[in-house]
Amino acid sequence: MTMALEAGDWGGWAGVAVAVLTVAVGLWQQRRQNRRQVEADAIARRHAEVAERRALATEEAIQRLIEGLPAAVQAHAQAQVAAAPTRHAEAVSWELERPSKNVFVLWNTGTETAAGVKVDVGDHPAGLTRRVPEDAVVRKDASIEFMMLGAWGRPVPRQIRVEWDGAAEPAVLRVPQWD
Predict the structure, then answer these.
(1) From residue 11, how far is each of 15, 19, 23, 26 by CA, in Å?
(2) What distance in Å separates the CA atoms of residue 163 and residue 23, rounded to the nearest whole number?
(3) Positive or negative CA dihedral for 16, 22, 24, 26?
(4) Which residues pair with 108 in a beta bridge?
């Protein structure tokens, strides 16, 4: 028996060689893929451990903050009391102008805004007044305008009282005369 290669055998052997080569390349790629998967798993495991450590550290920090919160609140409250600005009597001061016969302009010439401003015109009839401040806010260097009429035998009052939040007692202002 002689073994001679015939033309049809070459194709078969080439097919076997290609198949062996394909299997070898496939095994090589699978092995490479498995290595990469092992590396990826190791990286994922390290990331999970880092995230867990970070979560524990955050939890411990929050716990320390919660434990120190009452002392911090008390310290903040004491700091606020210590830093509270002292209101001086001259922080809000008033001037009254009379640009026309029945119009009056009340100016805040002080250094602070006055809230809850109320003008008391005494026993002057309410029917002879317009827009008299009852609960106004007047910023520093700002004014508020109102009207008082002298009629029905009732002249314009000689003085008014101005009250505002934080004032120990009202300011008494002389009403300017109209010539």
Answers:
(1) 6, 12, 18, 22
(2) 99
(3) negative
(4) 94
Query: Which residues does 135 contact at the CB level (< 8 Å), separation at least 6?
Result: 116, 117, 118
> CA-CA distance, 147 to 132, in Å (whole number)?
7
151 DSSP 8-state letter: B
Instruction: Tell me the pLDDT tens digit for each residue of 152-172.
Output: 788 999 999 999 998 889 999
- What letter represents residue 22's amino acid? T
Q: Which two tokens stand for residue 17?
A: 């060689």
Residue whose C-alpha is closest to residue 174's, from 159, 163, 161, 162: 159
Q: What is the pLDDT of residues 85-124, one digit of tens each?
A: 555 556 899 999 999 999 999 999 999 999 999 999 999 8
| Per-position b or e across 11-44, b if 16+ CB within 10 A of its CB | eeeeeeeeeeeeeeeeeeeeeeeeeeeeeeeeee
What's the whole-model pTM score? 0.51
Tokens 């202002």 -> residue: 173
Helical (H) or strand (E) element with 79? helix 7-83
Q: Which two tokens stand for residue 134?
A: 């009852």
